[in-house]
Amino acid sequence: MRLTTKGRFAVTAMIDLALQHGNGPVTLAGISERQKISLSYLEQLFGKLRRRELVESVRGPGGGYLIARPLDTITVAQIIQAVDEPIDATQCGGMRNCQEDEHPCMTHELWSNLNQHIQDYLQTVTLAVLVQNQRNRENGCASMVFERQPAMAAAV
Questions:
Q1: Which of 6, 20, 101, 152 is the Cys-Cys partner for 26 at CB 3.0 to 4.6 Å?
Q2: How remote is the C-alpha of 45 from its chain's centroid?
Q3: Domains, the chain, ordered by start
Q4: How far is 12 from 59, CA to CA, in rounded Å?
Q5: pTM for the whole structure
C-alpha cells in the first residue's frame, strides 16, 4: 500500500490551514512557503478540497482559504478522498481480478481487509486531533493524542 504525495500534501496543507484557523483567510503562497509544497500543486489540491466543501475560498485583497467546517468534523479519510487519493493495498484496485484468469489472488482478502482497517482508522482521526498534536509538539509536549472518535466514524 502506498499513499502518494497527493494525500500526504493535502493532509499537511489542511493542518497548516487549520493552525491558522480564526486568523482570517490563509494564502496558498503562505502554506507553500511554510510547508515547502509547490504553489501550483497546492492550487490543484485546494480546488478539489473546495469542491468537497472542506475549505472555502475568499476572493480579493486579503483573500485566501478558510476551513469550511468545524475541525472535529473533518477526518483524514475525507481529506485523502477529496483529492482522489486511493488507499488500496490490493494489486487489482479492489476489482478482484488480480490474477491472469481474472480471479482474486490468494492474498486479495488479506489486502482488502487491511484497506478497510486503514480506512476505519483514518475516519477516526480528525483535523482537530492533528492540530492539537502539532500544537503540543510546538509547545514541547512529548505526548501525542491519537484518540479515536467513534461518533465521527458513524457520522461519516
A1: 20
A2: 11
A3: 5-86+124-155 (1.10.10.10), 88-114 (no CATH)
A4: 23
A5: 0.81
